[in-house]
Amino acid sequence: MSTPARPRLGPLVFAYALASYLVFLATFLYAIGFVGNLLVPRSIDSPALVPLGDALLVNLGLLGAFAVQHSLMARPAFKRGLVRVLPAAAERSTYVLASSLALLALFWFWQPMGGVVWDLHEPFARGALLGLYAFGWCLVLVSTFLINHADLFGLRQAWLYLRGRPCPPLAFDTPGLYRLVRHPLYLGWLFAFWATPTMTVAHLVFALMTTAYIVVAIQLEENDLLAVHPEYADYRRRVPMLIPNPVRKPPAAQAAAQHLPHDSKRTTP
Ligand SMILES: C[S@@+](CC[C@H](N)C(=O)[O-])C[C@H]1O[C@@H](n2cnc3c(N)ncnc32)[C@H](O)[C@@H]1O
């Protein structure tokens, strides 16, 4: 059997993917410190430097810029344009790098606003909210592994390209938490952005705007998923978007109730 030819740009594309992934990792860690006011030089609640109105304008601009970058670059038409100028194997890494840089810019130029919306003093309540904060970030990380961490961050595509192998798209799957809700990763973000013992005005603006963005992003993402995976329509009918339904029957019981065979790993959450 002949070994596949290795593309000339393989090592470069793989190095780019690795570098983009490292930038993402640094951004992810910084985000935990930024939102939680932990260990970073500039956080969401650093001392206010400019008047409230100016700070609000800057922050809304930063959040808007991130939303536009993140959603525009995820659209299939944009991706088609990008792979005319870049190897397809570098497309996802470019998205990861651009999203990380947009977030780092947001963290760096963010203007704290002062003002306290709520501040819990009771140690148990504070501990509980900090626990939910940590839970949110863990949920984000675990969800990336459930979908496919290496694919989500462009490493799989670059690795297969380096080896001269084809990169078939992943089949649609609904593993683990994806059987409870359709968007566990976004749910993790919601926990991470809202669970705080001290809610400031700046933090509230951040949480409100990111929540609005998540709702819009879900619509766009689901339209794209429906176009590629027709079985998503059935999945969407049966599995809640963000809030698990504790009385929902497991899939096997649903199939039995409807006298349907229960055998599909991929299409039955
Ligand atoms: C940042 S992830 C967020 C996934 C999901 N919205 C969530 O909150 O867990 C976005 C990528 O995941 C992919 N995706 C979403 N649901 C998926 C599923 N059930 N199986 C595989 N990929 C999925 C989308 O196509 C998109 O490329």
Summarize the structure.
This protein is mainly alpha-helical.
Keywords:
binds S-adenosylmethionine; disordered C terminus; 269 residues; two-stranded antiparallel ribbon; mainly alpha; globular; 11 helices
Strand order of the largest sheet: 1-2
Task: Specify Rg, calculated over alpha carbons.
Answer: 21 Å
Bound molecules: S-adenosylmethionine
Average of the residue pLDDT scores:
91
Oligomer: single chain
How many β strands by DSSP?
2
Number of helical stretches of at least 4 residues: 11
Tell me about the biggest sheet? 2 strands, antiparallel
Describe this structure in words.
- The chain is an all-alpha fold.
- It has one domain.
- It is built from 11 helices and 2 strands.
- It has helices at residues 10-36, 52-72, 76-85, 91-109, 123-147, 149-152, 155-162, 184-194, 201-228, 232-238, 251-257, and strands at 116-119, 198-200.
- Strands 1-2 form a two-stranded antiparallel ribbon.
- The radius of gyration is 21 Å and the shape is globular.
- The two termini are 39 Å apart.
- Residues 255-269 have low confidence and may be disordered.
- Residues 143, 147, 172-174, 178, 183-186, 221, 225 line the site of S-adenosylmethionine.
- It is found in: Membrane.
- It is a multi-pass membrane protein.
- Keywords: Membrane, Methyltransferase, S-adenosyl-L-methionine, Transferase, Transmembrane, Transmembrane helix.
